[in-house]
Amino acid sequence: MKVKVLQEEDFSQESSEIQKSRHELAALRETFSNDKIRLEIIDSQLEQLKDQLDQIKGKIDLETRSINGTSDVFSRISKANRDITKHRADLGIIQEEQATLFHDVGRFLNINSTRIDCREACRGHKLIQEQTRLLQESIELNQKLVDRLS
Question: Strands (DSSP E) along the chain, which ranges?
């Protein structure tokens, strides 16, 4: 623009001022060109860094999901352990009740072994009845022995 104005003022010949302005313009074009190349290089580097940042964010997200998944697994394991403990306690109570019932049924059958219905219920278990009878006899004899020694 400056060159045009100077040319219009002094149309006949190129003055030194026009020459100077042309050199300045050429220098500015060179600077602009260099800056443009440098800007393109920086843009390229910026894109590479953005890609690296995206990769790092992806890794972080993956690790975060892994950590969240791990904590979910740990919470499920903890819940399963609590459930196992509760069920074991319930099972222990049931087994105690079962042992008590077995004892009561066995005692009833032993006391009422002369009843017809009890004999039929115990028909296939004569050996166990005999062992129980012998065990009771042994306990009674041991108690008598203790009484004599005391």
Answer: none
* Helices and strands (DSSP H and E) totals, the chain: 4, 0
Q: 118 with 109: CB under 8 angstroms?
A: yes
Of the candidates 89, 134, 125, the one whose C-alpha atom is nearest the C-alpha of residue 105 is 125
Give per-residue pLDDT as tens, 26-44: 999 999 999 999 999 999 9
> 136 Cβ partners below 8 Å, 6+ apart?
110
The token duo for 67 is 């950590």
Structure tokens at 72: 């979910």
CB-CB contact of 38 with 27 (8 Å): no
